Amino acid sequence: IVFSVSHFLPLSLSLSLSVSLSVFVSLLLSFSVSASLLPLPLPPDYIDGEGGWSNWSPCSVTCGNGNQKRTRSCGYACSATESRTCDMPLCPGIEDAYKTAATEVSLLAGTDEFNATELFGVDTDSCERWMNCKSEFLKKYMTKVSNDLPCCPCSYPTEVAYNTADVPDPSTRRDFRWKDASGPKEKLEIYKPTARYCIRSMLTLESTTLAAQHCCYNDNMKLITRGKGAGTPNLISNEFSADLHYKVDILPWIICKGDWSRYNQARPPNNGQKCPDNPLDEDYLKQVEEAWEF
């Protein structure tokens, strides 16, 4: 800063004024720098770090299969969203939608009454009887199931984690719709121990059976092809009837006292895509030995 007043003032006063101005400028600069280092005030809605999850939103549908979402704060102007599937009661008319498959089952059975316990040979007293059931109806139905269902993908298709998704099936050169089957209601820790993820194929209007493919995967998202964690075909999809699915697919496992080695003989896990054996021989043989001892 240059002042011309020094021409009109005595030398001593001029020097004093110059020093005072220097000190003032230094203080001003010091204050300016200090102020710039102070943190800016934060908006009132700012949350430092991660906030808690909100409640799950209502299911996106009132019947059938939908999804739910919840959110949480992850910092200023940041929010995280999590989704999950939700199953509501079947939509009215679902039986009509799958009338082709239901009619086919009735024709195969030779009866108009659909008694799942009798048709599929479920005997509440004997696992051995159930395993050895070789009725003509069951043979024909199992053949149709093997032709009707897609093969299990060798890796867990992550696109089904939060919603249903179409997945190509190389063996049939068709796309099949799948849904995740890893939720708490599936009770994987009981029925499919060692499985971390499972998926289930969905019925289509062209289905000739009421069955669904069931595939399970380990922590590395690789298909479990054998052993106690392997998925097995569901002869009745829970999408059609949760009650019939329980009687036909879950009850036999229970009457066999959870002996997967016998259950899987009657309902072999699918490995139509020739995925690598999983688990490896050593672990698989241990599981077999444990099942026999049990």
Automatic annotation (TrEMBL):
Location(s) in or outside the cell: Secreted
Keyword match Nucleotide-binding: no
Sequence ranges assigned to domain AMOP in this UniProt record: 119-282
Family annotation (Pfam families): AMOP (PF03782), TSP_1 (PF00090)
Record GO cellular component, one term: extracellular region
Protein's UniProt keywords contain Phosphoprotein: no
Protein keywords: Disulfide bond, Secreted, Signal
Any one GO BP annotation for this protein: negative regulation of angiogenesis
Family: Belongs to the isthmin family.
Protein name: Isthmin 1
